[in-house]
Design brief:
about 575 residues; 13-stranded mixed β-sheet; six-stranded antiparallel β-sheet; 26 strands
């Protein structure tokens, strides 16, 4: 004996088994027998409701599985047992293969609502046309179950097409979410997905946010074009950047045309909005910029966009400081006489610094993208720098360039870094000029961003923003530090085998004997007052001449030391003491 009951459009079968007990079932959707409820009419209605709800949940889960999705993190209402009269609701989260976008919807007694896509970070994606629906119907066979099944099938198919076509958009959205969580803290993201791509707006609180976290003011606009495999970020700069183009034909351009620069990641930095600086003769200011990336042409290099954001933040900060230095001038105590800011753009700052040994032309640019070598601490440290100094004149090689870049990225103080550069520039140029150039091609590698210069048994490296170490033949080493623009300090620095474990056992190292008396004699030749320990004074522009005797002394002493060690080894006179 059986009875079919339609409860709000859902057929529930009431079966009387041979034992005389009632069994409630939603045939084809759920064969699970619900637990017994209280007796009487109230208990019977509660059992009908429970059977109907289990049938709805089973129907939704079956349709999700048939459509090729898999359920994940199905959330139940924990208060249902305590409040059975409360409106039921179950949230389904469905995954498609291993794609980062998920489909989420809320199943209730009469409708499917809150239908939309969700990224892995939890951001809700609004999809036009992907809306909820009601499935309550009359007493036709199948009733609400069939309506629920048909409605879910249509929306699951539409969601599948969007998720499969949004491969680039989902990856970019996930990357943006991770960046927002790590750098911006509390943030809100609104996302709209269309067939052409994704549009998103990211907002955050600026009050307690450090300026180096982001160069933008909220909101930040993201746009992904799936058909072209490209995407862009656009926003207003927190600190407007003065636009000073390079002189052309002896005249500075009065208005900016179109500032577009290529980033190390392969993207493009484009100025989209400019405004006047407020003065008739003042520079124009870049207010809004756009970062553009072409995934089809550049492959996976677009994933480096967070480094581009960090570079842009540092450059915008330094551009403001550079403008303040120009406005201050030498008469206001700035210890950089004659420095000129030739180029100021969101992606590049270029200066010309007159010195006693010639003009130095250098620029601050985003750090180049490169793969760090295995077990190379230097390359790892270099890869973490958002910006680096790059020299253009008189030579692209500047041994202290990387050290100065690290200091600027750490302190974000442009004036102090430029003052240190002005003090050390003559020392660097003198040491690089005194190192003999290799006779044979390929015997050394001169890289513009290297920290070492090795040629003809000489090795020079930067160990500080004002300090260079000079090794001669792997046996002798001295350290030279620039104290100011007219003095330096030189000291002997013995080489230990702990510092060079790969040094051949037969090769001995030693100290530079009588270095201090030699420096005192060298200092005395320039007049009184140059007899301080290890300190050497010089006239600006003459350092290369003053250091030339020191180079000759190191070469001669190395030859003498090699002859002594060779004779000592042949005669078996004994071991050389460590102090030697």
């Amino acid at each position: 004996c059986s009875l079919d009951v339609f409860l709000r459009g859902c057929p529930v079968h009431v079966i009387l088994d041979p034992a005389g007990r009632l069994a409630l079932s939603t045939h084809l959707w759920s064969e699970h027998r619900p637990p017994k409820a209280t007796g009487g009419r109230e208990g019977f209605m509660m059992r009908l409701e429970a059977a109907r709800w289990e049938g709805l949940c089973a129907a939704a889960a079956a349709e999700v599985e048939l459509a090729g999705w898999r359920s994940a993190e199905i959330q139940f209402d924990e208060n249902e047992k305590e409040a059975p009269d409360k409106a039921r609701g179950q949230c389904f989260t469905c995954c498609l293969d291993d794609r980062p976008l998920r489909l989420q919807f809320l199943l209730s007694d009469c409708e499917v609502s809150d239908l939309g896509l969700v990224a892995e970070g939890g951001s809700r994606i609004a999809v036009p046309g992907l809306d909820g629906f009601s499935f309550v119907s009359g007493g036709s066979r199948g009733g609400a179950f069939e309506m629920l099944r048909d409605g879910l099938r249509q929306r699951l198919d539409a969601a599948r097409k969007l998720v499969e076509s949004a491969k680039l958009g989902s990856e970019v959205l996930l990357s943006l979410q991770r960046h927002a969580t790590a750098a911006l803290g509390a943030s809100a993201m609104s996302v709209v997905m269309k067939e052409s791509g994704i549009e998103s707006r990211l907002s955050w609180q600026v009050k307690d946010l450090d300026a180096q976290a982001t160069p933008f003011e909220p909101p930040l606009t993201l746009q992904v074009k799936e058909g072209l495999s490209c995407w862009s970020l656009q926003g207003k700069l927190r600190r407007a950047v003065a636009l000073i183009p390079a002189p052309q034909g002896g005249q500075r351009k009065s208005q900016p045309d179109n500032f577009v620069e290529t980033l190390p990641s392969g993207g493009r930095l484009r100025v989209t909005k400019v405004c006047s600086g407020g003065k008739a003769a003042g520079p124009w200011l870049a207010e809004e910029v756009m970062l553009e990336y072409d995934a089809a042409a550049r492959g996976e290099s677009w994933r480096r966009w967070p480094q581009d954001i960090a570079s842009l933040a540092l450059l915008a900060d330094c551009a403001l400081q550079a403008k303040q230095l120009l406005d201050a001038g030498p008469e206001r105590g700035v210890d950089l006489p004659g420095i000129e800011l030739h180029i100021s753009r969101p992606g590049c700052l270029r200066w010309r610094l007159p010195t006693a040994v010639g003009d130095e032309v250098f620029e601050l640019v985003p750090a180049p993208a490169k793969e760090p070598e295995p077990n190379a601490e230097t390359d790892k440290a270099c890869a973490e720098l958002p910006c680096v100094f790059r020299w253009l004149e008189p030579s692209p090689l500047f041994l202290l360039g990387r050290q100065l870049s690290r200091r600027l990225c750490r302190t974000r103080r442009l004036k102090e870094t430029l003052c240190t550069l002005a003090v050390a520039v003559e020392l660097v140029r003198a040491v690089q000029a005194l190192v003999p150039r290799p006779r044979a091609a390929g015997s050394t590698a001169f890289r513009a961003d290297c920290e070492e210069l090795e040629a003809n048994n000489w090795l020079c490296r930067g160990v500080g923003t004002r300090t260079l170490q000079v090794e001669c033949g792997g046996m002798l080493r001295v350290e030279i530090s620039a104290l100011d623009s007219s003095s330096l300090r030189c000291r002997d620095l013995p080489i230990s085998r702990r510092q060079k474990p790969d040094l051949p056992a037969a090769q001995r190292t030693g100290v530079v004997a009588n270095l201090e008396p030699f420096l005192q004699q060298l200092a005395g030749s320039a007049g009184a007052g140059d007899t301080e320990k290890g300190r050497l004074h010089f006239e600006p522009g003459s350092l290369s001449t003053r250091l030339s005797p020191l180079w000759d002394y190191l070469k001669a002493y190395r030859v003498i030391l090699e002859i002594y060690l060779q004779k000592s080894s042949q005669s078996g006179a004994g071991k050389i003491s460590e102090d030697w």
